[in-house]
Amino acid sequence: MPEYRKFIVEPSLPEKLKPLEDIAYNLWWTWNHDAVNLLRRIDSDLWDSCNHNPVKVLGTATQERLRELAEDDGFLTHLETVLISLEEYLKADTWFKEKHLQKWSKDTKIAYFSLEFGIDECLPIYSGGLGVLAGDHLKSASDLGLPLVGIGLAYSHGYFTQYLNPDGWQQEKYPENSLYLLPLKREEKDRIPVKVEIPFPGRNVYAHIWKAEVGRIPLYLLDTNIQENSPEDRQITSQLYGGDREMRIQQEILLGIGGIKIFEALGLNPTVFHMNEGHSAFLGVERIAHLMKKHGFDFFEAKEACRVSTVFTTHTPVPAGNELFEKSMLKRYMEPLLRETRLDVDRLLTLGRINPEDHNEPFGMTVLALRLSAGNNGVSKLHGKISRQMWHNIWPGLPVSHVPIRSITNGIHIRTWVSEELKNLYERYLGTKWITKPGDDTIWKKIAAIPDAELWRMHERRRERLVAFSRKRLLEQLKKRGASDSEMQQAEESLNPEALTIGFGRRFATYKRGTLILSDLKRLEKILENKERPVQIIFAGKAHPADTEGKNFIKKIVHTAREMGFLRKIIFLENYDIDIARYMVQGCDIWLNNPRRPLEASGTSGMKAAANGVLNLSVLDGWWDEIYSHENGWAIGAGEEYKDEAIQDSIEGRNLYEILEKDIIPLFYTRGTDGLPRGWIGKMKSAMMNLIPIFNTNRMVREYTEKFYLDLGRRWHEQVEQQPEIIKSLAAWKHKLKNGWPHIKILEIKEDSFLHPAVGNLKPVEVKVRLGDLTPDDIVVECYYGNLDSNGEINEGKSIAMTCEGEIEKGSYHFKGSIPCDSAGLHGFAIRILPYHKNMVTPYIPGLIFWG
Description:
Strand content: 15-25%
Number of strands: 30
CATH topology of the largest domain: Rossmann fold
Largest sheet: 10 strands, mixed
CATH superfamily of the largest domain: Glycogen Phosphorylase B
Distance between the termini: 75 Å
Radius of gyration: 29 Å
Number of helices: 30
Helix content: 40-55%
CATH class of the largest domain: Alpha Beta
């Protein structure tokens, strides 16, 4: 084959249409309905065939069509309106500027790392909820004006495209994405691509940097599909979650190590680093090496500086989501990376083990992330609790409830997910503050003022659009499969635009139980076949290519949909993506979610549905566990957890049918003389008012800012940039602490001999402690107390610090304290000793807790 010379052909736009490029290349348009409508006007058929990608539309539209638009006064006026909106958005004052800019060091940034970003269907570098959450995080960071940059990978094939064979078995295709035809621009200096270089075993790997604009936020993506790399290394950024273990570690090194190298290549200066899941945890390794080189820190000092400015969000309790690598593979890839540093591979390996001394334990990316982050969180209150239980062995001896993993519940970017019709309704009755002041949550109370008739007619139009969209998609699916004329006819008549519509859209992982509603087909048939109160179900979702059981779930749905009692009432939409999700969450009546508790960490699809007035029917897991009330929707079960999955499925399947039969269907079809389901509409309004102000990414990003970003940014500025001696002293103190900790001993504990104090009194306690080479300034002695359960355990204990009364003899000290007796019953206490330093972020250091 010849070696082709490459050149880039750019769209040729008439001068009057040049502003279209500014709009097309800023993904702000994805959450602005007016901008979407403008781009669709270029050529609506082309818009759909190009997967709603405006860059490809501009590069594909005929010159004749572009000349027509350049002379179309209506189009030019529309273009000017959208351009002004974009310019005003980019220049407007923001929440961050008003509230926090004075607390933030100038020119510093937050770096947000994620293996996937789901911003829009036209940029296919996402697979599911994790990526969509990351995309919504960037959008809200833009709305709020945070100084944040995103870091990810530019996949040439993205995640797979799903289609079903005639038997309903999932097949995968990997169509190529031309990065030059996506809303991305390659970073260049003097017309030469900027690239980063990462040492790999036996060679270096190179990557170009692509940039997407997400409103005010730049998103940088690394691409290894370039000539400098071998054919094998060019495949590193080929597929999201593709390949074997070798490919996975290569992608995660590229994201973490290469992502840090982006900043040096572009002259950026982030000071807070946020890891969205453990895939990017290698960034800590590169940062430690960089800090050792730049600041002259030793390993322990650099590790402290890295920790003090890093946030880690864990997203799943499912084992497959918490990456493990064998020691031999990890060493092979880390040695070239560490060759030019003073870092030791064996020392690095201890950071990825729950038990650092267990040389047979695999290297865990979640463990590495937890050890190198000062701020750790789960993505709902329940998930935070589960995460503390999962990872408490990293902090041996610490009560589970005290494990330093907090919770910040996920949200959604409201403007991305609400329908245009509902957005217009919101503006009419709520004003525009929900758009211009996304930090003001009080405005959602005005939903109560929306007339019932207007809200219901709007919702009915969205259901009609969902049905029309579903029929069109179903016909396209069947045509590709070579379906018969009778099947095509059935597809054209599928679904009823007036029937109660249940939506189930998510990954077909087995724990999400996509077929639970099919557990009793006779009972389900009776529900769906009721001509006076019809019900229908729309399914969509992908199974991982290696998940045979998940594929069997999809096959079962497809086969059930072909049976006589379910024809035209159950459909499965192929290739679930953001576009399909948008139609479903905007047009369904019920959003069904039935995972096995507690495996659904958050569940943002239900939030998207709620923002559109769709009611949730869900297991009490993730976000639904912390907000459910009868006014907001329905709960399957009461939060039970089962050891026997078959029993769980049987019980919760029956409960699902009972709720449909006794509550949901009667409420939906109980109409007044005006034809309105007043009870249903009241529940819609209640859910919208209660859920939207809480479960949105504007609230979520504000929480990350005020709980983590601001504090860690301040600590970095003070302790690393201004006074690095603070970090040095902190590292030295920890070294001293670890040497002295084994010599701590509690000599005596004295308590008041009166065993039964009354409520409201204090119980005095004294303790004598030998600290050896440590001093009272290095530690805090606490009374840990609380109610005892039947096993003699304190489940939700409290602690109170004791006061040092002086030195008894060299190295031994006397402490006093009093336990408040706040409630009656059987109580217990224990003495514990924790490290203390005024510059610690958390008092809990793995391995450093002493119990008396």
